[in-house]
Design brief:
The chain has one domain. It has about 80 residues and is mainly α. The protein has 4 helices and no strands.
Length: about 80
């Protein structure tokens, strides 16, 4: 019998905080319930973990960034995606 999997609310919060972090946002740009996730990304994630997040979700962040800031890339893109 198939198992119905639910989306983790924790994972959604982490992705939301990551999108702010990846778009050069600051802690002030994050919702109160996501501040811990943002700080975890900023101070406790390894470069390999952050690069993996870029590979998985970076296209969406980059697309939104390029609409708001044509002709530029976020600083985090240069640190993680471009480094490959």
């Amino acid at each position: 019998m198939p198992v119905r999997r639910r989306k983790s609310k924790r994972r959604q919060r982490v992705l939301s905080a990551w999108q702010v972090w990846a778009s050069d946002g600051t802690l002030d740009d994050v919702a109160d319930d996501e501040k811990e996730d943002y700080l975890t990304l900023e101070y406790f994630s390894t470069p390999a973990e952050l690069a993996a997040l870029w590979r998985e979700h970076g296209a969406a962040v980059l697309e939104a960034w390029e609409k708001a800031h044509p002709g530029t890339k976020p600083r985090r893109w240069h640190e993680h995606a471009c480094a490959d």
